């Protein structure tokens, strides 16, 4: 459950930090500091959070596998890479939600709802193979599902990276998913309108 809680927190903090810029009408200043580049503005806003999340996931990985002796039959290196990419994927998903709904209240609500549903739909509390097929499809929508699959392949089964390569590639889809919505985010930040 730790990765699911972490994903929920990452998504909420990411959306909250972007939404606060619009709420307090500081987003035009953020864009001016980034020379009008929305990519620079987002990286500047999210990168410090990313570093904090990376420290947390490294601690979490060490805590689980080193100090609590969870089974680690595979490579420590690839488990750490898995966790680092997981953070970026969760942030990418959150920025995408914010791009679709550049409203603090709505985007926070959507991230909270999806994050909470993840606990059951991503097969943490109920096996995906036993779900109705129409519901099981939705288990693959959130980044934490791929974290769970990589954990099973590498840490539990000790399989080489080859068997998890597709799940690692999916992380990159989440990381680059916000790109089509950058124009929408920039437009919302240039003319901030806060609807309580």
Question: What keywords describe this structure?
Answer:
globular, 196 residues, 9 helices, mainly alpha, 0% strand
Report on this structure.
The protein is mainly alpha-helical and 196 residues long. The protein is built from nine helices and no strands. The chain has helices at residues 2-23, 27-33, 38-67, 76-100, 104-121, 133-136, 143-156, 165-176, 182-190. Helix 4 runs antiparallel to helix 7 and helix 4 (76-100) packs parallel to helix 8. The radius of gyration is 18 Å and the shape is globular. The chain starts with a helix and ends in a 6-residue tail after the last helix.
Topology:
Elements: H1 2-23, H2 27-33, H3 38-67, H4 76-100, H5 104-121, H6 133-136, H7 143-156, H8 165-176, H9 182-190
Short description:
The protein is mainly alpha-helical and 196 residues long.
The tally of strands reads 0
Low-pLDDT windows of residues: none
Helix coverage percent = over 70%
Largest sheet: none
């Amino acid at each position: 459950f730790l990765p699911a809680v972490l994903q929920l927190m990452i998504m909420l903090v990411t959306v909250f930090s972007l939404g606060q810029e619009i709420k307090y009408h500081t987003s035009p200043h953020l864009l001016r500091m980034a020379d009008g580049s929305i990519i620079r503005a987002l990286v500047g806003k999210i990168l410090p959070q990313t570093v904090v999340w990376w420290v947390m996931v490294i601690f979490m990985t060490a805590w689980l596998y080193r100090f609590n002796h969870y089974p680690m039959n595979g490579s420590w290196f690839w488990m750490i890479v898995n966790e680092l990419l997981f953070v970026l994927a969760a942030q990418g998903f959150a920025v995408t939600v914010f791009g679709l709904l550049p409203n603090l209240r709505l985007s926070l609500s959507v991230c909270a709802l999806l994050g909470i549903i993840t606990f059951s739909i991503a097969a943490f509390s109920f096996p995906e193979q036993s779900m109705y097929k129409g519901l099981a499809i939705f288990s693959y929508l959130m980044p934490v599902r791929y974290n769970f699959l990589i954990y099973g392949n590498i840490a539990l089964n000790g399989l080489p990276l080859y068997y998890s390569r597709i799940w690692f590639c999916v992380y990159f889809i989440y990381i680059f998913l916000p790109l089509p919505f950058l124009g929408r985010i920039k437009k919302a930040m240039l003319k901030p309108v806060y609807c309580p």
